[in-house]
């Protein structure tokens, strides 16, 4: 698992006012703000959906950035879903103080074909995934919140700040999902 990818996702949740505990290749996140309620039951969340739709969650970033998460990939690599096993539920329950929590995957991309895309989503839901976030949403969300003239303690945010200061991210590009 790429530590850089985990740190990107970690900083994304912190910038959205979550308390974050990193546990190996997982993030346990707890919303520090009042959640606006369940709203519509979106499976794929954008960066703007995070604060209003997530209270507590176990987040699994999967940083296979060159891979699309097709049904075949999901079946060939069942270890993607190991964090969902019952033996871990008690540990997560302790962290969240018995409150409910979502199980979220952060992945690079889904297949372009609508049929394969829907099949991948079906497989993830059957395995127990509650929500999905794309890395492009994570990165776009971070870049959007970074102020080029503010100094950050986080190395990830500081690198993004320097890139933004030197205009490596054009204003039009910030509105695109990469």
Report on the architecture of this protein.
- The protein is of the alpha/beta class and 178 residues long.
- It has one domain (3-174).
- 41% of the residues lie in helices and 17% in strands.
- It contains 8 helices and 6 strands.
- It has helices at residues 3-15, 50-53, 71-76, 86-95, 114-127, 135-145, 155-165, 171-174; strands at 18-23, 26-31, 44-45, 56-61, 102-107, 131-134.
- Strand 1 and strand 2 (26-31) form a beta hairpin.
- The radius of gyration is 16 Å and the shape is globular.
Summarize this structure briefly:
The protein has about 180 residues and is α/β, with parallel strands linked by helices. The protein is built from eight helices and six strands; from the N terminus they run H-E-E-E-H-E-H-H-E-H-E-H-H-H. Helices cover about 40% and strands about 15% of the residues.
The description of the largest β-sheet is: 6 strands, mixed
Helix content: 40-55%
Low-confidence stretches: none
- In total, the number of strands is 6
> Could you give the distance between the termini?
22 Å
What order do the strands of the largest sheet run in, or round the barrel if closed? 1-2-4-5-6-3
- Number of helical segments with 4 or more residues: 8
**What's the mean pLDDT score?**
87
Broad structural category: alpha/beta
Shape: globular
Give the helices and strands as they follow along the chain: HEEEHEHHEHEHHH
Strand content: 15-25%
Q: What is the gyration radius calculated from CA atoms?
A: 16 Å
**Number of domains as seen in the coordinates:** 1
């Amino acid at each position: 698992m790429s530590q850089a990818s985990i740190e990107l996702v970690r900083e994304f949740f912190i910038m959205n006012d979550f308390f974050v505990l990193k546990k190996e290749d997982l993030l346990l996140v707890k919303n520090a703000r009042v959640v606006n309620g369940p709203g519509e039951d979106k499976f794929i969340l954008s960066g703007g959906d995070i604060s209003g739709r997530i209270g507590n969650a176990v987040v699994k970033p999967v940083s296979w950035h060159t891979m699309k998460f097709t049904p075949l990939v999901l079946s060939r690599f069942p270890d993607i879903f190991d964090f969902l096993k019952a033996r871990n539920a008690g540990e997560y329950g302790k962290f969240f103080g018995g409150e409910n929590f979502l199980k979220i995957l952060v992945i690079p991309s889904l297949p372009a074909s609508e049929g394969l895309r829907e099949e991948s989503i079906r497989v993830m839901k059957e395995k127990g995934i509650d929500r999905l976030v794309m890395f492009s949403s994570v990165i776009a969300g971070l870049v959007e919140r970074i102020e080029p003239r503010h100094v950050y303690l986080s190395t990830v945010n500081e690198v993004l700040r320097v890139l933004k200061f030197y205009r490596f991210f054009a204003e039009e590009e910030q509105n695109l999902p990469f």
